[in-house]
């Protein structure tokens, strides 16, 4: 198997594992806590960033007339761009893991319930 195929298979397994973990932890203390090494943990829990940033992000999406169904794509592209222009290069697999571990559980939260 080619190295690229091996990496893709590993990524798929990781993403599926994250989906299973999120589904299993809804309503639990572990929900929304990224399963990352201590050195790779975000500065705060993802929900803290959502509470602080979602009103701003929603306003930007609204101002740019981004349809609701296209918003996940727009946000994903913004995240990719942020990693691409970051001067501190991050391993793409680690970047994908961080985003997946943080974004998947936050996607389960109803945005209308974000203060």
Q: What would your notes on this structure say?
A:
With 115 residues, the chain is mainly α. 62% of the residues lie in helices and 0% in strands.
List keywords for this structure.
115 residues, 4 helices
Topology:
Blueprint: H1 3-25, H2 46-63, H3 71-85, H4 92-106
Concise synopsis of the structure shown:
The chain is mostly helical and 115 residues long. It contains four helices and no strands.
Which shape, going by the Cα principal axes? globular
How many β-strand stretches? 0
Looking at how many chains there are and whether they match, the oligomeric state comes to single chain
Strand content bin:
under 5%
Individual helix count: 4
Protein structure class: mainly alpha
Radius of gyration, taken over Cα atoms and rounded to an integer in Å: 15 Å
- Determine the mean pLDDT: 88
Element order: H for helix, E for strand: HHHH
Which regions are unreliable across 5 or more consecutive residues at pLDDT < 50? none
Termini separation comes to: 48 Å
Helix content: 55-70%
Summarize the biggest pleated sheet: none
